[in-house]
């Protein structure tokens, strides 16, 4: 499946599109460890406003520059954050889109796996 310029590989149907005005989403298998070797993109599309994303839990393999496992937050198709580590290593947000679409992308390699993330979103 492809979404705009971002290729999406889903793991057991865990990734997809949300069209509700508010919600909570988690990485695949959360709070257990996320799978190895995956790219999972969640698309959040709201009506009548922008998307506000706030991480409430975060644990992704840390490496300077987030060169291995990482979470990227997109305002539409424009990357606005690249995150790895724990809640004490990252800016948990809020991340606010300029339009009605935001995306959250988790990339994992074949080395280490952590529990991932939980986040909330709302329309503002």
Automatic annotation (TrEMBL):
This protein's record includes keyword Repeat: yes
Keyword Disulfide bond listed: yes
Keywords: Disulfide bond, Repeat
Residues in the signal sequence: none
Name of protein: Uncharacterized protein
Annotated organism of origin: Owenia fusiformis
Taxonomic lineage: Eukaryota, Metazoa, Spiralia, Lophotrochozoa, Annelida
